[in-house]
Amino acid sequence: MILKVGNVQVTQADFESVVSSLEAQQGSTDLNRQAFGENYASLLMLSQQAVAHHLDSSPEVLRQLAIDRTQILSNAEFASLKGQAKPTPEEISAYYSAHLEDFDVVQVRRIFIFKKGEGSAAGRGVHPADAKALADAIRQAYASGSDPRKLIRDPNDVVLDSEPLTFRRGELPEKMAKAAFAIKEGEWVVLDDTSEALVLLQLVKRSRLDLKEVSPPIEKKLQAEKLQAELDDLKKTSGIWMDEKYFAPQTPGSTTKPQASGPTKSVKNEEK
Known about the structure:
- The protein has helices at 12-26, 33-52, 59-84, 89-98, 128-144, 174-180, 211-237; strands at 3-5, 8-10, 104-114, 158-160, 165-168, 188-193, 197-208.
- By secondary structure, the protein is of the alpha+beta class.
- The longest helix is centred in the last third of the chain and has 27 residues, at 211-237.
């Protein structure tokens, strides 16, 4: 025994179990062991006093206890369903095999050369007639391993990637992704050539994440899908009914509560 309040004795195992449960619900506490123990002793003391004063039989306390019991049972069933929904290694592997392209990765370089407007003697950008030659020079610098930034007179004129950037499928804008996943390694493609800018992209390398790398997010996705399917099935078989008039969306600024047209026959289970 490490703590005693009235006739309640708390063992070390009991106390540490309470601490673990509270941290799981509320996050890690900054309190030291003594402070936490004093708080827990006060909790036990006040709860004992409440029982001694018959507060545990008051309508309000009984209502709150019923709500807490419902929430605890709901959490327990949700945790059980979530555990049952955990996908098997075979299911994870099958999903990976069926969605291989989703795990493709590209390393790319981009060049953005901004052009001056026709007839403009000032402002951001290079002369339109010089844009293509500058792009060719920058590409040659990349190919030879020299620093392309030395070719840029004004950093406001050109934006480029000194080092390749890595993107998974779905992370690039659609137009850029379409080009990046279609061209060959080392190849450049012109994405845009307008009066305002010349934009080029090079595919440096294409690869694919392996199953081990992507198993955690696949597991999370499949578990969520299976869990949601189970919850949807439970809703269909649990006899849930809600008064559509009472639960109808309220107009902005409305302070009038909707009137129920009849008694609610069952209560919607809370989902996490």
